[in-house]
Amino acid sequence: MNEANRDLARGGRHYGLDWLRIAAFALLILYHIGMVFAPWGWVIHSDYQISALIVPMALLTPWRLPLLFAVSGFASRHLFEKSGSAAVFLRARNLRLLIPLAFGMVVLIPVEMWVRVREAGYPESYLHFWTSDYWRWGEFWGRTFPSWEHLWFVVYLWAYTAGLALVLWRFREPFDSLARRCAGWLAQGWRLLWLPAAGLALARLGLQFVVADEQGLLRDWAGHALYFPMFLSGFVLAGSPSLWPALKRVFGAALLVAIFAGLATVAIETRYPGETVPPHWVMAVARVSQVAMGWAVTIALIHLADRYCNRDHRWRKTIAEAVFPFYLVHQPVIVLTAWYTLPLGLPAGVQFVVLVVATGGACLATYLLGREVGWLRPLIGLGPRAGRAAPEISPQAA
């Protein structure tokens, strides 16, 4: 076991996974900006339908969210070990996830929902919408209220964290024993590559034509069948040093799986672009390819982060802390900026630069202001200032 993994086994921080988390959220922001121009439906859309985005975005889609949940699970293990007990861990996660969620639902999501109904013909101002029409339940101008919008990730992450905390509270020793046995078994041969991928693919196929493929904490069973195992795998990996040599061993094969699954995904996406519905067997192949690619890319990137990026930098802590505020703010800024600038008829390249600059500037301003104002810190997912933090609080929110 190398020094980095010995530190990890003692509960040390894995800097490589921090950098991977930062990169994953940065890609997410760029992905959402790209959705303004891609030939798929989104919150708001440019008149430009840039078909060249189909391939890169089809290659990003299968693994961007599974990776985020896996890295979040890994970070949750680190936070759990620092907390010392399941109760303290859950209390800390409630503060760091539910308070920003409430803030987002009151302040950030109304911006997106206003643009959504305005796109459908709603005539009123934002102030009128927020005071009179946002606080409703049911259909309104073709939109369902209330809506989490992009904050569904926070809702899912909290639910997975809370469920896991309850298991650890009542069954910590059996959970650890089962995790050790599973990790030891998966570490043999090629099992770490093919067995989880096969299990995820079977679960995805089993639910494909049984439940609707839609977001929602109590109805997105297809999503939970993928995201929760990814979250749990990250949590187990963080406490299982025996799995790291297996990651190195299956790395080359994981790349091959990712390449072939990616080719199948791109072929199907280009053959049935946009909202075109393919035959059922093609949908099944697409789901299996996406799941296989998601798992293969995730374990390959974790190995690369472990091998090449597991080192600290003076900016790492600051950037890692800024990730969650950036995530909270980015999509409302993209949507609002696009709403006011798309009518200007700017060239696509100029429009893209405007969105990147406006989003980056607003996110950075939110973080820089929020970290200096004590009462704003918890609203954007930041803990107490250094020197005043309780032992169980970590600078990392998600």
Automatic annotation (TrEMBL):
Domain Acyltransferase intervals: 15-365
InterPro entries reported in the protein's UniProt record: Acyl_transf_3_dom, Glucan_succinyl_AcylTrfase
Bilayer-spanning residue ranges: 20-42, 48-74, 95-115, 151-171, 192-212, 224-243, 250-268, 280-302, 323-342, 348-369
Keyword Flavoprotein included in the entry's annotation: no
GO MF terms, alphabetically ordered: acyltransferase activity
Keywords: Acyltransferase, Membrane, Transferase, Transmembrane, Transmembrane helix
Protein name as annotated: Acyltransferase family protein
Classification of source organism: Bacteria, Pseudomonadati, Pseudomonadota, Alphaproteobacteria, Sphingomonadales
